[in-house]
Amino acid sequence: MTKSALITGITGQDGAYLAKLLLDKGYTVYGFVARRSSDSRWRLREMGVEADIVYLDGDMADACSVQRAVIQAKPDEIYNLAAQSFVAASWNQPVTTGIVDGLGVTHLLEAIRQFSPHTRFYQASTSEMFGLIQAEQQDENTPFYPRSPYGVAKLYGHWITVNYRESFNLHASSGILFNHESPLRGIEFVTRKVTDAAARIKQGKQQELALGNIDAKRDWGFAGDYVEAMWLMLQQDKPDDFVVATGVTTTVREMCRIAFDHVGLDYRDFVKIDPAFFRPAEVEVLLGNPAKAQRVLGWKPKTDLDTLIRMMMDADMKRVAKE
What we know:
- By secondary structure, the protein is α/β, with parallel strands linked by helices.
- 42% of the residues lie in helices and 15% in strands.
- 50% of the residues are buried.
């Protein structure tokens, strides 16, 4: 019998990779999308799945449209990937971030509780909830200390998921995902900002790259690997929360070196530090411990940072050359 899944945030990086994964597994895939005047489905086209999605209009801030989508789709699984996910923007849009990343989760859980209690639910939590880290390596038991409106809103979404799971016996799991990137990543994120700039500088279309704290450390993985962990969580008999990470942390500086090396350039000749890009409350280090995901889900990352950045560089070099 064919399974069905509803994906919020399907037009984002993770949504596109997850849609492809589920379609390849024979799922009927519904995409919950907000109406936009600009083209928001380009990632789905890149993955070759745009025409295979059943689209449902709605908005995470509107409880009625969320309920209607759940009733129409009758999904076996819901993956909540919708978010205002750019940390820097959350300082300029704290209320919007709180509504979409926090209240929107409650809208989904309440719709499941009332209309589709058999549905299994995945909540996209984030390593930004750890913020001012309380342990050298963060796992499911590490205390949270978010340092941005994004991290705070996501923490609400995480804990309301736990509460609905325990209060109403819902199969609701959270993936505490550390940074994960791909050629489909938005240009505002530092990895794509770096690979796009390196491609432009190499082709003479840009002179330098302005960045903030390049000594910040992050645990970077490949989005295509991480969506498999999402799916595996909803195949378990028991819902739970899982850290999804590589277990390796790298500075932004080193990531720049890898990207510029790929096109025969020295990043030190082009990267300039601009204090305007520093966060009001910096998160200096994030390093995940994926041992539980490895033990329970049988999941391991397949793509190292060097391979990931080179993949992104190749894609950006081709894209910039066509402009």
